[in-house]
């Protein structure tokens, strides 16, 4: 049985940075980690990539050959990956014996609440390779500063949860930067627990752009509250305690903690025992320097 994460989220939410930081953290606590890049538009990877979709298909080539834009090109690439799932399985086969997997997916949100190709890829892998995966859906914390954008993020999170039908963790990323975007109207707990959304109505009414959509926004908030599925965990990828707390939530959701309770205790005891050298920015810079030196050679 193999465990891992499916990392998704809108462009700019920090997926690649998350995969870089999370892989380093998991290695520090003793897990063997393999990062799988399934974003054909991500050509500047800060992490060591075990499997790269660009070895199969490139977005730039697809756009040029078929005269497609970025969105259409990404849909084509996911369709192509689904039809060539045997390629991905062959690449993963050596890793599933003893690695924890991180799947870095594209940022096009339509792939995860509208189209079925990415979902089909995930489910085929889970069935054929006995994977236990949790979806980690990243949302930039700055959206909490704008009530309208926050409601949109809630609706996107709910739609994605219902479409993918997998263990699912919604994460407010870059939480350390949230105050730099503006003052929150409520305490952070209001946004993470998704409490009574009617309190947002007053703030929405103050925005002239939102007044014409008042009734629609009220109905959308009602849908979100009726399902009562969405909440958020916060994340500062530079803070080992924040990352460790998120790992515990993920391990519980996909069953990792129950499959190896003793191992999990040993892993997290390493965090409490001594401070760790946790600086993914520096590691990324070193990797970039080595890559540049190699190119110069």
TrEMBL record:
Binds to RNA polymerase II (RNAPII). The keyword Hydrolase applies. Keywords: GTP-binding, Hydrolase, Nucleotide-binding. GO terms for cellular component: cytoplasm. The gene is LOC120252913. This is GPN-loop GTPase 2. One of its GO terms (molecular function) is GTP binding. Belongs to the GPN-loop GTPase family.
């Amino acid at each position: 049985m193999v465990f891992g994460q499916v990392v998704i989220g809108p462009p700019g939410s920090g997926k690649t940075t998350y995969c870089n930081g999370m892989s380093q953290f998991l290695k520090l606590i003793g897990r063997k980690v393999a990062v799988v890049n399934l974003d054909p538009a991500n050509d500047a990877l800060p992490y060591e990539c075990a499997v790269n979709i660009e070895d199969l298909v490139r977005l730039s080539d697809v756009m040029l050959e078929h005269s497609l834009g970025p969105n259409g090109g990404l849909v084509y690439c996911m369709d192509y990956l689904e039809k060539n799932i045997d390629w991905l399985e062959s690449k993963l086969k050596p890793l599933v014996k003893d690695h924890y997997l991180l799947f870095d997916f594209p940022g096009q949100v339509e792939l995860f609440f509208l189209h079925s190709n990415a979902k089909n890829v995930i489910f085929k892998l889970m069935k054929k390779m006995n994977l236990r995966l949790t979806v980690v859906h990243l949302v930039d914390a700055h959206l909490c500063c704008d009530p309208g954008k926050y409601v949109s993020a809630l609706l996107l999170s709910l739609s994605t949860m219902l479409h993918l039908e997998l263990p699912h963790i919604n994460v407010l990323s870059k939480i350390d930067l949230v105050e730099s975007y503006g003052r929150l109207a409520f305490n952070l707990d209001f946004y993470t627990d998704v409490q009574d959304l009617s309190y947002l109505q007053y703030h929405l009414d103050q925005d002239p752009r939102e007044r014409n959509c008042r009734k629609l926004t009220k109905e959308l908030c009602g849908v979100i509250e009726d399902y009562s599925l969405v909440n958020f965990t916060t994340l500062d990828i530079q803070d080992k305690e924040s990352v460790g707390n998120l790992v515990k939530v993920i391990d519980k959701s996909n069953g990792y903690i129950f499959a190896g309770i003793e191992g999990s205790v040993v892993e997290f005891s390493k965090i409490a025992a001594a401070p760790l050298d946790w600086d993914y920015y520096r590691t990324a810079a070193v990797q970039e320097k080595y890559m540049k030196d190699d190119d110069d050679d």
